[in-house]
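Lab meeting, action items carried over

1. Structure of the two-component assembly. Owner: GW. Status: complete.
Input record:
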Amino acid sequence: MKKIFAHTTCLTSKPTHYCPGCTHGVIHRIVGEAIEELGVRERTVGIAPVGCAVLAYEYFNFDMFEASHGRAPAMATGAKRSRPELIVFTYQGDGDLASIGMGEIVHAANRGEKITVIFVNNAVYGMTGGQMAPTTMPGQYTTTSPNGRNPAEVGYPTRMAEILSTLTTPAFVARASTHSPKEIIRTKELIKRAFRYQIEDRCFTFVEVLSICPTNWGLSPRESEKWLEKEMLPYYTLGVKKSPEDFSEEWIDGGH
Amino acid sequence: MAKKLMKGNEAIGEAAIRAGCVHFFGYPITPQSEVPEYLARRLPEVGGKYVQAESEVAASNMIYGSAGVGIRVLTTSSSPGISLMTEAISYIAACELPVVLVNIMRSGPGLGGILPAQGDYLQATKGGGHGDYQLVVLAPSSVQEAVDLVILAFQLAEKYLTPVMVIGDGMIGQMMEPVEFPSEGVGPPLDPGDWALTGCKGREKRIINSLYLDPVECNNINLKLKAKYDLIAEHEKRWEVYNTERPYDLLVCAFGMMSRICKTAIDDLARDGIRVGLFRPITVNPFPYEALRQAIDRAKRVVVIEMNMGQMLEDVKLACEGSKEIDFYGTAGGVVFSPDEAQENMLVSLKKIPGGAAGKKPEAATKKSKPAKKRKSR
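Predicted assembly:
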């Protein structure tokens, strides 16, 4: 019989701790498959964040770091600059990257570090129990915005892909989503493209992935997908925000 | 090799290169900025990497990432910057990675000032960051010793897989002295051993991590670190004694530049037959308690002189265990005792010795200098 599907070699067989319906598992698999298909597993170093994906180092089947909260892009800088032959990526959530790690991500992007950042945005702090994140939607109820996020008090959600795409240096900035099979396939294309650019020695690549959090949103997985589509998609528009093809080689590579 | 006249900060940068460290991640801060300036110029010449981080928070995490992939790495900063690095230092210690940090101390607390101080002694030796970790901390008293201790710092970091910090007061970084480097060129690279993340080709994946949700496992990590720190304490204590060959009445305890100032004062007193010895810890962690106790046992009284408000004093008290009276004189804020002022303090302590001390200072301890507190603000 012909084998048409196999578990990616880039994930261990350890069951994940993620809640039912959570899309972290899907995104892990996409990252794993992309790295496997590009043939770089044996020279990849991943960096796990603090947050729901803190145990990602248990699930990815290649060398892994665990970072302090928000600092993964700085660690990735140290690792990639020290061993440029490695394929280095960070896997970060919205509290980690868009709140406490805002400084590190912006500067790693602006220096053009030759790393890939997978940014999982589920509009909430998951691991700590559903508090408001910088990416929480206006009116969204969380444990620390019990009356719904009020932009008059705390501002509007941060759009990281758009913020980073205003910088001249980064090579590739995109936003994808996991709310439907079609978008999951598209997410994989973008993530694989980001890693391919890194292999080609392009500078900074970034894929934001919209993700659902049924547990902390208080919705079923199916309702969560619908909520993401209805509430998040109009604000967090999908697509490639910036790519090397937009600019001349010289411009994008910034003299690296 | 001939001696070369170099500024302390530049000599520290060159010492790292001689030790085989060609990767530096740092951030400018007075009075250590000549280290990144020197290395930004020098590292490309030796095939190294210099990255100016966006903050000390980032710089310290960059060395975490660099050491984690098995590369010998350095960062340097000054007091407020070191405070920002303490988070990463805790992680690096927990993950047992070899890094070297240099703190060219300025005055504090808060933004403090940019002049020399020794106010980060407790931060360096007793923690700084969270959790049960320790740093090996080395305290040079000259530019030459800063060079030697930076090289030793890399050796100790790699021998014990632990972060090592060199603490020099601002004078060490800013003054020029003749220095000799023990080797030419760049030292051999770090052996990535069986722990570094170099890609999993031909082996099982490796993880560098400090998260242990199982309390027994986390306890075991703490016990393992403690055993390592005990081993370091057993084998790596270093100190200097001065003017202790013959009997002495007063023992002065000082570290870093303050010890050199005290030596000048001690030499001057010795000319009048006044017998004062000096004990200077070189490893301020692990602190040489036993050696200090032996030196204390030979003295009638002890005086601690520091450029802070009494930080090493706590370790001297631990060594002393109440066996002798201890006086303390300190300055802060960038005010540095002159040799005359240090001598003045020693004479005050000598006067307190019951039955008096040997020797005689012809002119009483009032003439030459004013106490630091009366100085005008600058």
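2. GW to write a short summary for the group page. Key points so far: The longest strand of chain A covers residues 87-93. The longest helix of chain A spans residues 181-199.
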